[in-house]
Design goal:
One of its GO terms (cellular component) is plasma membrane. The protein is mostly helical. The chain is built from 26 helices and 9 strands. Helix 9 packs parallel to helix 12. The protein is globular.
């Protein structure tokens, strides 16, 4: 159909705009997904404690200084709460806006590097189509926010290339300063190689190396000054050691000798291609096409020297988590966008359609199987042999077959749509739609396993009536935001249970860790992450002599369930 009305054509073009499509696809996740344990609930707890205590200078968790992360995300969450009210969704809005800002900044970055609006939009489509980026685009975590700060700093680096030194210094300072306040000094690493290796992509850097590095150093110093604007008053408030822990704990601890998430050197090489799906699956090009696409343009060299050395550096970091690589994904998107332009490149979007078709069939079959145990007894026995417990089967049984149908339809659309083999927009929309369907399926099927509101209400009620209550083992602030607690929930070891019960015979003890031998019937039980949350009366524990002779082994109470 030919559209002759210019206004109508403009409206249709606007409806196809990536910004609108991105928001339409991801807003339902913002409003429908509960806070996911353990990380999102912990960060909400820190933000809530900042709000309830009125101490916006230093993050706290359960009444103690929270040294794991700097305060920027918690400040932004509180800013959103002051506008929209205190909700999970109003905290998610911050990250969604950060991901949208990253897309805007990438679009502008590619446009400045190449002068090609087509390439800029293609890079954006590729980034928003990466299933891992789409998944984390509304997560209450730090990495999308860090990616936004990195892109701001990289715009400053480009300003140096264009001899706009004042603005370049200001943007580098702003990006690095906010990045450090978002996640610590790792922000410098995410920018360092694009700047340090500039002679390989920038004529201005090659022309005057001394000026290039001197001006860039000013930007770095400016970023450190922004950080010091918080560090100095925080240090006066909590002391040098605690302030250093907040800023350096994440970076130095994980680089030198990781206290968590230790992975082998090659681990990222195995994981990163999965994070970039569907593009590693559908894009085919000979090595010569990759080499030509990258080396023939300033944009290609910039993207390569930004993302590849940073990726290699992260491989040598002891602690590894997939989301640590989110800030370099825009650079990879630019490389892929350049390869898309090669005449030798081939896009097999229908392969991704076939994969979604298989996934949809699997989800549909799984939902129907788990929901009809009498009819599918043999399949359920297979679940048991695979180590899938009854709680997990019950959760899958609650999965609506609708979600499998949605994935089937998306896959079928890709198989039938010819444009899926020509341009990235169709693939990106379908990938984001699949992420939406899967996350809504998770919310619908697992909400009962993830929502701790009822247990948190029990804690709040006990605290309100002055009844002592404590958790056995560390709880990560799991209940603080859900219960809007204003009093810390004490954490004790299993070896301390008997002594605590003697001191508080009218109190309550709880845990969500099923490894403790407690042969007493709890008065409250709630499903939680395919296990349970239990609450006992201290008097019942005393009567049963629970932990009366328990050995004092702190490692028994250690919980490494942490994806920071």
């Amino acid at each position: 159909m030919i559209i002759s009305n210019p206004t109508a054509a403009k409206i249709l073009a606007g409806l196809a705009d990536w910004r609108l499509i991105w928001l339409v696809l991801l807003l339902p996740i913002v409003f429908m997904l509960p806070a996911l344990p353990i990380d999102e609930t912990r960060y909400l707890a820190v933000a809530w404690e900042m709000h309830s205590s009125g101490n916006y200078l230093v993050p706290h968790l359960n009444g103690a200084i929270y040294s794991e992360k700097p305060p920027l995300l918690f400040w932004l969450i509180n800013l959103s709460w002051s506008v929209f009210g205190i909700h999970v969704w109003s905290a998610r809005v911050i990250t969604l806006l950060g991901s949208l800002a990253s897309l805007f900044l990438l679009n502008r970055l590619v446009l400045r590097l190449s002068g090609s609006p087509t390439l800029a939009v293609r890079a954006v489509w590729i980034l928003l189509g990466m299933v891992y980026f789409a998944t984390f685009s509304s997560a209450i975590m730090f990495d999308v926010l860090l990616a936004t700060c990195v892109l701001i700093a990289l715009h400053g680096v480009l300003d140096l290339d264009h001899a706009r030194h004042r603005r370049g210094v200001a943007l580098i300072a702003l990006g690095i300063g906010l990045g450090i306040l978002a996640k610590g000094p790792v922000a410098i690493l995410d920018v360092a190689f694009a700047f340090a290796l500039a002679p390989f992509w920038s004529i201005a850097a090659r022309a005057n190396l001394l000026r290039w590095y001197a001006v860039g150093l000013l930007g770095l110093l400016g970023g450190l000054l922004i950080t010091l604007a918080w560090v100095i008053p925080a240090t006066l408030n909590i002391g040098v050691q605690n302030a250093q822990a907040i800023l350096l704990h994440q970076t130095v601890g994980r680089v030198a000798n990781s206290f968590a998430h230790q992975r082998p050197l090659w681990w990222y090489a195995m994981v990163f291609p999965l994070m970039l799906l569907p593009w590693p699956l559908v894009l085919r090009a000979p090595f010569a096409a990759w080499r030509a696409a990258i080396s023939a343009s300033q944009a290609g060299r910039f993207a390569l020297l930004w993302s590849v050395p940073t990726f290699i550096a992260f491989c040598f970091v002891s602690g590894k988590q997939p989301h640590y690589l989110l800030p370099i994904m825009p650079g990879v998107a630019l490389i892929l966008a350049l390869v898309f332009e090669s005449p030798a490149a081939r896009v097999r979007g229908r392969l991704f359609g076939a994969l979604l078709l298989i996934l949809g069939i699997a989800l549909l079959t799984l939902a129907l199987t788990a929901a009809n145990p009498a009819q599918f007894a043999s399949a359920l026995s297979l679940f048991n042999r695979l180590g899938i417990n009854s709680s997990e089967v019950d959760a899958v049984a609650g999965l609506w077959p609708l979600w499998g149908v949605c994935i089937l339809l998306i896959g079928g659309f890709l198989l039938l749509r010819r444009s899926a083999d020509r341009e990235p927009r169709t693939l990106a929309i379908c990938a984001s739609a699949a992420v939406l369907a899967l996350m809504l399926a998770q919310s619908q099927a697992l909400r009962k396993e993830l929502d701790v509101t009822d247990a948190a209400a029990q804690i709040r009620a006990a605290q309100d009536r002055g009844q002592p209550i404590a958790n056995i083992g560390w709880h990560h602030g799991l209940f603080e935001f859900a219960g809007r607690l204003t009093t810390p929930l004490p954490s004790i070891t299993f070896a301390q249970v008997h002594e605590w019960c003697i001191a508080h015979p009218d109190g309550l003890l709880m845990t969500f860790n099923g490894k403790y031998p407690i042969p007493v019937a709890p008065f409250y039980v709630q499903d939680y992450r395919f296990g349970h949350i239990w609450i006992w009366r201290a008097s019942d524990m005393l009567a049963a002599h629970v932990a009366e002779k328990a050995p004092a082994n702190p490692m028994d109470d250690k919980d490494d369930d942490d994806t920071q």
